[in-house]
Amino acid sequence: MKVAKGRFALLVLCLSSWLLAGCEQAEPDANTAEILRQDESGQFAAVVPDKKWQFPKDHLSHPEFRTEWWYLTANLESEEGETFGVQWTLFRFANSTGQGTGWNSPQTYMAHIVVTSKEKNWQAERFARGGIGQAGVASNPYRAWLDNWSWSSFGDSPFPGRLQFADGDMTADLKIRNQGELVFQGDNGFSQKHPTQDIASYYFSAPFLKIDGFLQLDGKTFRVKGDGWYDREWSSEGLSDKQQGWDWFSVHLDDGRALMVYQIREKDAKPYYFGSLSWSDGKTIQLQPEDIRLTPVSYTTIEGKDTPLSWRVDIPSHQIQLDVDAVRKEQWLPFVFSYWEGPIKVSGSHSGQGFMELTGY
Questions:
Q1: Nearest to 361 by CA among 34, 7, 112
Q2: pLDDT (tens digit, 9 = 90+) per residue, 227-273?
Q3: 131, 107 Cβ separation under 8 angstroms
Q4: Is the pTM above the cut of 0.85?
């Protein structure tokens, strides 16, 4: 895959410069799809089928791969009936496979936090160099952190865990319990991203989380509880040179099942579809491209971008026909790489709630 390694290198350089020289943040015009394309140097580890999963090791970082993330989304409700979406993400980027320590570490971290109500969102982004203790993922006990944004537990697994963060007028203290089995997306966690090219990631999810705790927003405290979804993914290659971005949906259906559907859009070609339908007892059905129909229903112009915020999701083989609508439309996140992400409601054959992520628009 001959792709834009330069844009990724630019991102790493920008983050490194930020940390070393205190430079101002770059304008947030970088495209997620461009950043995550494959590095053509071949120095990073390849994603191959038939991985032998090892836990708790695979809860930790994989520095031999180029990119990695720990990703939590949650749909929460307060005792007063107000609803909130919460997103917490820790990203790791490598600019080489070297073994430098301290400030010479090749690892760079970035974290995003977003809390969304129907009327407003609170958002923050931070960066850190790996190797100096400011960010990382550790075991005995488990901890994933950047500054005072931290997911911690008393054991080697993230679950049960505690998520704590504070930034400006946004504070959270949330307890996280896993009430289902891990879901290994694709072929036992080997998640193909292109129908013909060797582009893939290692990808597993914990879609059956129960979350409760406190949010403090603009000085007001809310006791909240609800459902969460956790994604772990790492790779050394993200998209082909013609793939433009993706649309990702995670949904908790009213019958207790968890649905994930994903399309990667490609110039002058049909999107590549994949997904899964899961039960908390460990049963999972991997959805194939022919099983999934994703249709944008209406577009909204946000930050100058025509963004599809209403969708039709059809899984005919499982009698699922969903109408998907964003809880709050103004969710374009102006981070170093920008994207749309926010809570959704679904109706139709099933009701439910979840999250939607849109990139490359």
A1: 34
A2: 999 999 999 987 777 788 899 999 999 999 999 999 999 888 899 99
A3: yes
A4: yes
For residue 271, CA distances in Å to 29, 98, 186, 240, 260 come to 24, 36, 17, 12, 16
pLDDT in tens, 80-108: 999 999 999 999 999 877 777 888 889 99
CB 6 within 8 A of CB 31: no
The pLDDT, as a whole number, for residue 314 is 98
Sign of the alpha-carbon torsion through 67, 98, 95, 236: negative
Average pLDDT over residues 21-35: 42
Cα distances from 295 to residues 243, 263, 310, in angstroms, run 18, 11, 9
- Residue 76: count other Cβ atoms within 10 Å of its Cβ: 24
Q: Locate 141 and state its tokens.
A: 């006990």
Q: Compute the distance between CA of residue 201 and CA of residue 186 in angstroms, rounded to an integer.
A: 9
Contact predicate 133/143, CB 8 Å: no
Q: What letter would DSSP give residue 14?
A: H
Tell me the pLDDT tens digit for each residue of 164-198.
999 999 999 999 999 999 999 999 999 999 887 78
Residue 33 three-state SS: helix
Cα(259)–Cα(317) distance, integer angstroms: 13
As to burial, measured by CB atoms within 10 angstroms (0-12 exposed, 13-18 middle, 19+ buried), residue 2 is: exposed
Phi-psi region of 242 (alpha: psi -120 to 50; beta: other; left: phi over 0): alpha
Token code pair at residue 32: 């997620």
Q: Which residues of 226-258 are buried (b: 16+ CB within 10 A; e: fewer)?
A: bbbbbbbbbbbbbbbeebbbbbbbbbbbeeebb
At 173 the pLDDT is 98
- pLDDT at 8 (0 to 100): 35
Asked if residues 175 and 211 have their Cβ atoms less than 8 Å apart, the reply is yes
- The tokens describing 43, both together, are 């120095």
Q: Provide the pLDDT for residue 36.
A: 52
Q: What is the DSSP letter of 187?
A: B
